[in-house]
TrEMBL record:
The keyword Phosphoprotein does not apply. Belongs to the TRAFAC class TrmE-Era-EngA-EngB-Septin-like GTPase superfamily. Era GTPase family. This is GTPase Era. Residues 160-162 are annotated as: G5. The gene is era. Gene3D superfamilies: 3.30.300.20, P-loop containing nucleotide triphosphate hydrolases. Residues 22-29 are annotated as: G1. Residues 69-72 are annotated as: G3. An essential GTPase that binds both GDP and GTP, with rapid nucleotide exchange. Plays a role in 16S rRNA processing and 30S ribosomal subunit biogenesis and possibly also in cell cycle regulation and energy metabolism. NCBIfam families: era, PRK00089.1, small_GTP. The keyword Nucleotide-binding applies. It is a peripheral membrane protein.
Length: 331
């Protein structure tokens, strides 16, 4: 912390947990990333793609905000849906501030009202956030702010754009001001406490979700089976690593002594039905190779090193309705 004569340190330091809630696609993950400043939560234009409560950290001299990104609260239709709602409720009962997100470019509907009612039962102050202000007119944003004010008793009502960054800093100020006084809860130089495996699995799922049809997103789960250092054998092991994303686990060789060259990652994309396989594999396996290429780029950016990504596709019949299979997938 700077501590010369001109720059007095902040009078108090605040810290605490913050959760964003809102209907699917409200922009919660994108806003989390904008606040934290690095890609830690997957985003997609398919509703309900955020399944894990992932923490992101914003550390400043005056406070530390621990963001818990939650799945959307919605009327459950499957066992997975019920578990997700339980996760959301448990998370919300435990946070210091809640950010309730409603997109500026869509009318407030029953889903938003359902959430507003749920929030009334909680003790934490709620900041109402009108998201995606860049996606619509100022007039529409003003109308949405008015409409949101009528949904409940909010500590603040703020318009933001996670894409342009407009008002994101102000939102952080408002939230930090509502946190209890206290020291940083996590080391100040990290952005998330999720394991590399969990983040890698999310990046693969994100890549697999791009361009898939409506019914598929909820059927995709990804697990990372193995991560091994590849030891340099003298041959060039690195030519086009993503090419080797095949339906079945490919051959992997090269464990002789030498310097570590690549990280081999073996991951499985789980589907619910065998009829979904062709969608993910694509013609001649091309889609799976594309998924591998995109995910590998993201994983390399995340880890700051080169990786060999080997993707395998498996069918885990009706996993969303089976408690044992849900446990196995980590839900
Ligand atoms: N124009 C614009 N688009 C945004 C903004 N924030 C999010 N989006 C887009 O809205 C879509 C949904 O964003 P997400 O952040 O994944 O939404 P979410 O609320 O986390 O969604 P779920 O995981 O379904 O709960 C994505 O296509 C984003 O690119 C924004 O500030 N401006």
């Amino acid at each position: 912390m700077v501590n010369d004569d001109d720059a007095a340190p902040p009078a108090v330091h605040r810290s605490g947990f913050v959760a964003f809630v809102g209907r699917p696609n409200a922009g919660k993950s994108t806003l989390t990333n904008a606040l934290v400043g690095s890609k830690i939560v997957i985003t997609s234009d398919k509703p309900q793609t955020t399944r894990r409560a992932v923490r992101g950290l914003l550390s400043r001299p005056d406070g530390q905000l621990v963001l818990v990104d939650t799945p959307g609260l919605h009327r459950p239709r499957t066992l997975l849906g019920e578990r997700l709602n339980d996760v959301v409720r448990n998370t919300l009962a435990d946070v210091d501030v809640i950010g309730f997100c409603v997109p500026a470019d869509q009318k407030i509907g029953p889903g938003d009202r359902y959430i507003a009612e749920e929030l009334k039962q909680l003790r934490a102050p709620v900041v109402a956030i009108v998201t995606k202000t860049d996606a619509t007119s100022r007039q529409r944003v003003a109308e949405q702010l008015m409409a949101m004010s009528k949904l409940g008793e909010f500590a603040d009502v703020v318009p933001v754009s996670a894409v342009s960054g407009d008002q994101v800093g102000l939102l952080a100020d408002l939230i930090i001001a509502k946190l209890p006084e206290g020291p940083a809860l996590y080391p100040e130089d990290i952005a998330t406490d999720e394991s590399d495996e969990a983040r890698i699995a999310e990046l693969i799922r994100e890549a697999a979700l791009a361009d898939v049809r409506d019914e598929l997103p909820h059927s995709i789960a990804v697990t990372v089976e193995e991560m091994n250092e590849r030891v340099d054998t003298g041959d060039d092991p690195t030519d086009e690593p993503a090419r080797n994303t095949t339906e079945s686990t490919g051959k992997h060789t090269g464990r002789a002594a030498g310097k570590p060259a690549l990280l081999d990652i073996f991951a499985t994309i789980h589907l619910e039905r065998s009829s979904q396989k062709p969608i993910i594999l694509g013609r001649g396996g091309q889609r799976l190779r594309d998924i591998g290429t995109v995910a590998r780029g993201d994983i390399e950016a995340l880890l700051g090193r080169r990786v060999f990504l080997n993707l395998h596709v498996a069918v885990l019949a009706e996993w969303q309705r089976d408690p044992k299979k849900l446990d196995r997938l980590g839900f």
